[in-house]
Amino acid sequence: MEENDVHRDLGSDDEETTSEMGELLHSSPESTDMRRSSLRSPSETAAARRTLFPNTDENEMVVPDNPGFTVCWDNVGKYTVARHQSGQRQNAMHMWAMVFASINRVPSTHLDWQTPHTSATDIPISKFLPDKEDFQMLRCRIVTIIQRILVKHLTFFHQHFADIPVQHIQHAHSAESAEKSQVLNLGVVQENPASASGTIAILRHIHKYVPRVDGKFYPTVVYGDQLSCERHNDAHVALANEPQEEDRLSALEPGCQEFHKRMLRLQDTMNLFFSGSSATDKGTLFWLKSVFNHRSVQKEVKDAFNHVSEFLEFVTEGYTLLLAMQILRMQRLDDRPQNAPDGLESACHADRFKFLHDIAEEMVASIWHDTMGVEANDNTDDQPRLSIAFANWTQMMPWWNVAIQNAQMATGFILNALV
Predict the structure, then answer these.
(1) Does the predicted TM-score (pTM) go above 0.90?
(2) Distances (CA, A) of 100 to 169, 213, 230, 342, 401
(3) Domain ranges in the chain?
(4) CB 74 within 8 A of CB 224
(5) Alpha-carbon distance values, 308 to 227, 274, 296, 300 (Å)
(6) What is the pLDDT of residues 11-49, one digit of tens each?
(7) Are residues 204 and 32 in contact, defined by beta-carbon separation less than 8 angstroms?
(8) For residues 146 and 164, what is the distance between their CA atoms, to the nearest angstrom?
(9) What confidence tens digit (pLDDT) does each residue in 266-294 have?
(10) Which among 410, 151, 399, 147 has a CA at the least distance from the CA of 283?
(11) In what order do the strands lie in the sheet with 92-103?
């Protein structure tokens, strides 16, 4: 028997017969585990539980001493080769699910999770919109990123300002995030994740590790790719009429994470700016793709994720540098800025920091919207003001997109420099 590398399932769902679906929905978790093994021995399962729930029994979680954990699963493929093939013994590709848990580095169990949900109609619009503090944090982040780009590509800044930009933007949990994650293998579930019945069986396997607090199931986030989250929601719909909370698997909350979350954001950017109709318009993404020979870039990000990511980074840095060279009155990347004071190269850290910071701030000011954010309040009657704020927010795209849009409209220098 041989095993291939891990394969990710990108195909469509398999159709299931009504009888098979009904058999699974009315079978107990124990009978499902007996029918198809999860490749985990009782001792391994017990060891995982002891790590997730130290000093307790029956998945009882002590809060806030226990930091909590999240679960993640994805598809794996196992290719088996029959030594002696026959009509009954053939080579086969098995699609299963790999499950693991990650203990939270930033504790979350101290947060309130039993307060009844608020109706969406009772939540003011201002709660969904960023306020002025959010935009100020965004602006500071953009300034830092611009400083990194200038130091990376402009010779003058690379030689004399390498120690100025912040390499890691600190936040409230930077120390905890720097620690290595503790990951626990929860086993491979021998169920087809491309089917509704297989997804339900996988979630029932995960539900065995759902913690309890004072006898109640504690909500547990189950991360996966976009397709896994869709199947998770379908499983909840299929089990909605089950009488017991445990059978409904309602304690498992799907969440899209990391790669697929970033892919969705990149797709929004491509939908907005990447169009074949702009192939002859200087400075557009489609035009830049052709001029700089990024042949592998496609509008569908899922088909060329790395190429799209690198292309957008290339365009971002290119427009940033062109705008910086205009402000600094430079003709080439290795020129000395004409408006740089004499002796700046040997100046103290504070003087060099101020010069680089002022340049970055000036660049941000040229692309920044004047009116952004709303004051946090519970006044839901002020609809016109909130509508305007929402419109401003929806127009505030990833900052490189704003830079591209404004650079095209503001000056012919940037467009002509590309020719």
Answers:
(1) no
(2) 29, 22, 19, 58, 37
(3) 18-108+175-256, 123-167+260-417
(4) yes
(5) 21, 11, 8, 9
(6) 333 333 333 333 333 344 444 443 444 566 667 777 777
(7) yes
(8) 12
(9) 999 999 999 999 999 999 999 999 999 99
(10) 410
(11) 183-189, 92-103, 69-80, 220-224, 252-256
